[in-house]
Amino acid sequence: MRILSVVGARPNFMKIAPIIKACKASKIIEPLLVHTGQHYDRRMSDLFFHQLGIPKPDINLEVGSASHAVQTAEIMKAFEPIVLKHKPEAVLVVGDVNSTIACGLVAVKLGIKLIHVEAGLRSFDHSMPEEINRVLTDSISDLLFCTEQSGVDNLIREGIPKEKVFLVGNVMIDTLLENKTRAEESNILNQLNLNGNGYATLTLHRPANVDDPVVFGRILDALEVIQNDMPIIFPIHPRTRQNLKALDLDQRINDMLNLQLVEPLGYLDFLKLMSSARLALTDSGGIQEETTILKVPCLTLRKNTERPITVEIGSNQVVGTKTENIIGAYKKIINGNWRESQIPPLWNGNAAERIVSLLIKNI
Ligand code: UD1
């Protein structure tokens, strides 16, 4: 059974790695891998293939960066002939990036079954490009694999037949558990002159945070206070680096002597940095889940989350982007005023195997 799997952007790579491995182990599914080229920098792409042992993509569409419409359209144009040539039984997409919806649309228009991994997550915020990608991809998928019960509930509420929906756990967590011991060996803490866990890890890249000078400024106000207390390590996403310059905010960052800007890190170094931190500050989706498994307190600098289980039982708190709220939540963590968290059901390292056995049964 030939299944064409798609990756495009950084968070897709850790999701696809265990799926490709489980497909190969099944000896029934032949996994073909397409990289759309949405992310192309070595530190945003190749490094992850190398560290996670993902086979070199069979096809690279090399689409690169552009506006949403152009990027989505270019991926569709380049992906259609690949599907026609390889005639897969199904196309499998993960997550919520532009590559996900672009390749999903091509597949269903050619009458090929579409599988969505990480289905059903909803922030209910249509100003997020990812929310549009999630809702649209789910509405055209034939098999939908969810990481948490809220995903299942959302899909049923939206009228997706329940026979198509499966709660399987979290493939990103499969990858984390598989690599945790290897990550321990990373010497990133020495490289950054960190000792113990008295530091914070920061990531920021959402358009709502880094495209708006007022919001970005409020976040910087909070960071200024926190870095007076403990070092902040900030592996910076390319779009955030561009915006710091464009919005004339780079001097403010440079003036924060206890905030270290570093290039985007590889998977193992980042996992080590995150797991040893006193806390994480982030607007990423995946980091909310990873910190939940690691039991590291996470402050999500957004108004909402599409991953509510990380807040209900995990170590995540959605704090928004108001300076005083970020500082208030930070102080609670530092004062030890943070509740004990739990691991969500099925986040135990076997999600990809569950997916593969369901594919064999259902395709
Ligand atoms: C994309 C996803 C987002 C995901 C994020 C993870 C969409 C709509 N967004 O956002 O959901 O959380 O990836 O990183 O799909 N750039 C580089 N090198 C690269 C890639 C990007 O320099 O390898 C720069 C380009 O200038 C580009 C900008 O970053 O314009 C944004 O890249 P893009 O792929 O459009 O979206 P992300 O912000 O990375």
**Through-space gap between termini:** 9 Å
Name the helicity range.
40-55%
* General shape: globular
Oligomer: single chain
- Total helical segments: 17
State which percent range the strand residues make up.
5-15%
Report the strand count: 13
Stretches where pLDDT is under 50 for at least 5 consecutive residues are none
Topology:
Blueprint: E1 2-7, H1 10-26, E2 30-35, H2 46-52, E3 59-60, H3 68-86, E4 90-94, H4 98-109, E5 113-117, H5 129-140, E6 143-146, H6 149-157, E7 165-167, H7 171-184, H8 188-191, E8 200-203, H9 207-210, H10 213-229, E9 232-235, H11 238-246, H12 250-255, E10 259-262, H13 267-275, E11 279-282, H14 286-294, E12 298-300, H15 309-312, E13 316-318, H16 323-334, H17 351-362
Parallel strand pairs: 1-2, 1-4, 2-3, 4-5, 5-6, 6-7, 8-9, 8-11, 9-10, 11-12, 12-13
The site of uridine-diphosphate-N-acetylglucosamine has 19 residues, from α1, α5 and α11.
Report on the architecture of this protein.
- The protein has 363 residues and is of the alpha/beta class.
- It has 17 helices and 13 strands.
- The strands form two sheets. It has a seven-stranded parallel beta sheet, sandwiched between helices.
- Helix 1 crosses helix 7 and helix 7 packs across helix 13.
- Residues 9-11, 38-41, 44, 65, 96-98, 129-130, 205, 237-239, 242 line the site of uridine-diphosphate-N-acetylglucosamine.
In short:
The protein is an alpha/beta fold and 363 residues long. The protein contains 17 helices and 13 strands. The mean pLDDT is 97.
